[in-house]
Each structure stands twice: as structure tokens, then as C-alpha cells.
Specification:
By secondary structure, the protein is an alpha+beta fold. It is built from eight helices and five strands.
Length: 224
């Protein structure tokens, strides 16, 4: 059955298509509503500072902090728009999408993301397959990023067998953090498996096994 198994089920493919439709709708609402509103608030705070002048330093200090927080919120909103739409993934493929994800994560949150991705992992899969792998990576990075004091994340995606991919995420945060419900649901959807443990260097390690054939599914769950 080869690589067609991963997303050969028509109902699963349809679920992925509906997911992207819903994400596109959400992105439009986010862009037309909260994203523009937050940017407008930041601009008005800046105007308010100029109107007050330098006579009230305490007020200016409070407005500076409010403006900075608002600009940070606007930056995170742009990240949400990127993560929701994933334009680079959908136009240039999985490798480009993951590279963009790494850059956006560092630019928005100051968290360095190092990628080690087997280029074959994208080329051998169709659009829906690549979308699901991207969502897995996105959710895994999100889980890692939300650890306390995380500065670096390492994401590896490589074949460990001909029809079995391993997605590994290491970070320097809390080694006791657990996977999210969204990540667990995605892993169930692909009939994969995951493990969340402390790595060799006592860093946090998340491993996700992604079967690409029926034989790989049976072999994976037989071992587990």
C-alpha cells in the first residue's frame, strides 16, 4: 500500500480539507477583527503620549508600557494568522512551511528553533499528508514553547524505517511538561504513537511516530 496509506482514507482527507476551510475562515475573522483593533489601539496610545507631552512622566510611563504590551499582542496575533493560514506550506511544500514556522517562532517569541528535516518526508507525501505533518510540528513546537524559560527548540523529522517517520522535539524547558489534547488528537488521527519524556541531557523530549503504511501501523502498535 506504500505511502498512499497515510491519508488514503477519503473521510480523513475530507476532514483535513474541512479543517483548512475552517482555519481560513478563522484567519479572515482574526484579520478583519481583533488584529486590526489591536493595531489601532497601539496607534492611539502613541497619539495619546504625544498629546499629553512630557509634563506627566508617570502617565507617559504607563502609556509606554501599555503601548509595548499592545504591540506584543499585535505581533502574537500576526503569528496566529501565519499559523492558521500556513501560506508557505500550501504554496511551497512542507520544508518551506517548517522553515517559515521556525523563523516566525523566533521572531515572535524569541525562541530559537533548529530544524533537521529529511527532505524526502515532504516529497513522498501529497498535500493533505504534508498539511497534517505541519500541524503536528506546529502543535509540538507550541507545546515546547509554552514550557517555562524555553530558549531553544530542536525539531527533527526523519525516516527510521522505509514507511515510518519519527518527529522529535527537544527543548531546554520543563522536562515534566505533557503533550496537549490537540496533539494527542492529531496523533490518533494518523494512527501514530507518541512519548513525552526527559531526554539524555535532562531536556524535554517529545517523540511522535508517524506510520505511512498499514504494515507500519500494525508494527508500531504491536510494539507498543
Amino acid at each position: 500500500m506504500g505511502y498512499d496509506y497515510f491519508m488514503s482514507n477519503k473521510s480523513t482527507k475530507e476532514a483535513v480539507r474541512k479543517l483548512w476551510i475552517a482555519r481560513d475562515q478563522f484567519a479572515r475573522h482574526l484579520h478583519d477583527g481583533p488584529a486590526q483593533s489591536i493595531s489601532a489601539v497601539a496607534m492611539r496610545l502613541n497619539i495619546a503620549k504625544r498629546l499629553i507631552g512630557e509634563g506627566n512622566s508617570k502617565t507617559i510611563e504607563e502609556l509606554n508600557q501599555a503601548e509595548e504590551q499592545t504591540r506584543l499582542a499585535a505581533k502574537e496575533m500576526r503569528y496566529l494568522l501565519f499559523a492558521t493560514q500556513a501560506k508557505s506550506l500550501r504554496t511551497a511544500g512542507l520544508a518551506a512551511g517548517l522553515q517559515d514556522l521556525a523563523e516566525q517562532t523566533q521572531d515572535t517569541f524569541g525562541v530559537e528553533v533548529h530544524l533537521d528535516v529529511d527532505v524526502k518526508s515532504g516529497k513522498k507525501l501529497d498535500e493533505e499528508n504534508q498539511s497534517l505533518l505541519f500541524l503536528l510540528a506546529l502543535e509540538a513546537i507550541t507545546v515546547a514553547r509554552k514550557h517555562n524559560a524555553v530558549n531553544k527548540i530542536s525539531l527533527r523529522m526523519n525516516f527510521i524505517e522505509n514507511d515510518l517517520l519519527l518527529l522529535e522535539v527537544h527543548d531546554d524547558g520543563d522536562p515534566n511538561q505533557v503533550a496537549s489534547e490537540a496533539l494527542e488528537e492529531l496523533v490518533r488521527l494518523i494512527e501514530g504513537d507518541f512519548d513525552n519524556t526527559a531526554g539524555d541531557d535532562n531536556d524535554n523530549q517529545l517523540q511522535i511516530w508517524i506510520p505511512l503504511s498499514l504494515a507500519a501501523v500494525k508494527h508500531l502498535h504491536k510494539k507498543s
